[in-house]
Fold Acetyltransferase (GNAT) family protein.
Amino acid sequence: MSTTQGTTPDRTMPSPSDRWTVSLVALPESLESPQAQPFLGACDVQHAVETATWGHGDLYLPAEMRLPIMRDASSTERLVLVATRPGTEGEPAREDVVGAAFLAMELTGNTHLATFGVYVRPDSLRSGIGTALADAVEALAAERGRTTLILDVGHAGEPPADAVDVVTPPTGAGRIAGDAPAVAFARGRGYALEQGERYSVLSFPLADDGVVDRYLAEALVAAGPDYEALTWYDRCPDDLVEQYAALSTLMSTAVPVAGLDLVEHVQTVEDVRQAEQTSRESGNDVMTTAVRHRPSGELVGYSEIQMPSSYGFLAFQDDTLVAPAHRGHRLGMLMKAQNLVALRTLRPALERLHTWNAEENRHMLSINEALGFAPTGVVALWQKRLA
């Protein structure tokens, strides 16, 4: 196989033993082509892991959605590696794939950084697959000149505060069971836990829609006449897109990042329009509620909901940001509650709305808790510097 985006590494990546072959997947022209088998196998592995971890496959990105996203190399290079048994003739078949890694490397902004996740079929754990994939990812990232790696791992639930064997990031917020296999795996490879993200789920139908209505009404009063809410779908209005790009840039540094080696990622109008196009191509509807400060005419906050068009039972609460100078007016609650009211009409079959927040972001977590989001797990962000 060869990689995408114009590079041509060897077909087989480094492996710690001869038990597994790790290969870089070429993106197929279509999911129906024979060349799509390894890519589909990688998606299958992620589906199996997410289902085993959370009890549902909501967090798995279906192949028909993942392919357009990976094809968009305008600002980020995204690669897939698969692990198979040695001796596979020709391209691996879908069922030959026993492990996969998804790697992302920004092309602007954080050009020193690579982020990745490793997935191994639940019936093939503790057999060296994860090690082989991580070795290959690290080698590939080093070839690309990346000096910092961030590995994300999802953990269902969270140990209680009085648990004995727990791992806590330096922020002091977020706990992971110390005996979780991923802890030994990450530490053994020289990674340090830098941040824990709380994974929360809001289940539908809500027990009482009136709770959201009440919070929205209270937030509108607190915001007062100086602020107005604006909502758009899929495409930001032309007269707002420059301001929206500026807020998106602020999002990269204005939220808690703990000790993660992140720098500002500037978003341009072109970046916004490309992201909108990719969302359309991947079958993902996006609703954005923003707040405009009337006296200045400036956008000062936004909150997005991602809604896969073919999966009406799930949605994802994405970025929510209020510019620092305008905090304290309940604008975060206003935007989130406004979106929840709109979802009643847009997604009547909605069952679950998923979201992630830094565990130390107590203000945003308080908003989510008030609206009914239930803590479901922790995503551990492990960091390693190669240089």
Notes: Residues 1-12 have pLDDT under 50 and may be disordered. The domain at 12-146 is CATH 3.40.630.30 (Aminopeptidase). The chain has two domains: 12-146, 205-350.
